[in-house]
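Hi both,

Apologies for the delay on this - the queue was longer than expected. I finally got the adenosine-5'-triphosphate-bound model through. Below you'll find the protein sequence and the ligand SMILES exactly as submitted, and right after that the structure tokens for the full complex including the ligand.
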Amino acid sequence: MFLVTMLVMNMAENRQKLENNIGQIANFAVKYNCALRRLDWQQEQGLVSSLPLGLNQINIQRGLTTSSTAIFVPFTTQELFQDNREALYYGLNALSNNMIMADRKKLKNPNGLILGTPGSGKSFSAKREITNAFLITNDDIAVIDPEDEYSSLVRRLGGQVIDISPTSDQYINPMDLTLNYSEEDNPLTLKSDFILSFMELIVGGKAGLEPVEKTVIDRCVHMVYRDYLQDPRPEKMPILGDLHRLLCQQPELEAQRLATALEIYVTGSLNVFNHRTNVAIKSRIVCYVIKKLGKQLKKLGMQVVQDQIWGRVSENRDAHRATRLYIDEMHLLLKEEQTAAYSVEIWKRFRKWGGIPTGLTQNVKDLLASREIENILENSDFIYILNQAGGDRQILAKQLNISPHQLGYVTNSNAGEGLLFYGNVIIPFVDHFPKDTELYSIMTTRPEDLAESTQ
Ligand SMILES: Nc1ncnc2c1ncn2[C@@H]1O[C@H](COP(=O)(O)OP(=O)(O)OP(=O)(O)O)[C@@H](O)[C@H]1O
Ligand SMILES: [Mg+2]
């Protein structure tokens, strides 16, 4: 049994309106068999008691049982507010308006996904998290940027922008191998997986690589690193040209086919990746822009950059430093079987090695294309869902157990509104970023905003 005092405070611009309001509320109460009594001569006490001070100066009470009392306590919303030092801001709780502060490192699995239709604010929320993480934590941050959307933000934060394109003179070498590349005794195993997926993208074809081709590639990979592994100096690092030469020397017909396919990337017009790495990473935050690589090269570019960053993660692991990786347009990596398999592998390994990857994609269906790729969804404890198209919404509802009511938050929602999954906590959020700020003008991609800022 609880003793409860119910106070209804009325305010209005003038006396007349106040009387009207009071009349309306009294009518409403009568409709439900309740009587409201005016606090004549006790208005000051009434005001004080209705402020959130925990003081009740009104001695009118009635007894209610637990269940009746509970109706008057609206504080049943779930909150996510961690107050440790590295908690980052993810918007306001749409139900309670409280801030959502969360530290992904506290999750069993910090890997994250940002899902939403085009224009729903995926890249924008990634940029917001990047900025926040850059200012609050000491983590390294790397961005794979297929649309050149992040470079202005990264430059403004004093970071490094690496432009990978046929016309740039900044190179990264897909054959780079750090000796701590993999925790198995042989760093070549994972590297061979990478080169297989690289070759798959090059050779293409519906069925991917054939078993014989895989064998030949694996054999050549082991040979091509032999010199370097005996004497690991940077100038001994093999490049694609070395792999091509070895392929040409193999007796199998398949090897010739592979070598011919690789040729254009070695001596032909697509030789962007046939150089030793000549960019040193000097900054905590790095953006790899691969926009100017054409359609086919773009997937290769993403793959190569992902591998470079993996090298960085393995270095950072020894320094006990976390690496945050953002992959925009991640669906590009999930189309080919071998490439997808390699990405899934990296996704799983990242967590163990102190990496925090975040994938952004508009194609939920691609995430469920195969059992293997579904691993990405299952291995991500942080999912930021923005507006969804009908079909994707049903898929997600089934996969993540979202109730029809919660689905409302990702149906025709505005940019920056949606549902946040943090472990087993599900919270609807709104994040209306103030538009009159310098940060907004750097982060926006909306054409009208961009036109305004150049005026
Ligand atoms: N939280 C937000 N507050 C205010 N404006 C936002 C917010 N999120 C997004 N916007 C606006 O919406 C625009 C589009 O967002 P964004 O570029 O992130 O879309 P996207 O989901 O990445 O789309 P695409 O799939 O085409 O890459 C932004 O440029 C920005 O102007
Ligand atoms: Mg985007």
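Main takeaway for now: The pocket of magnesium ion (ligand 2) is lined by residues 122-123, 328 (CB under 6 Å).

I'll put the files on the shared drive as well.

H.
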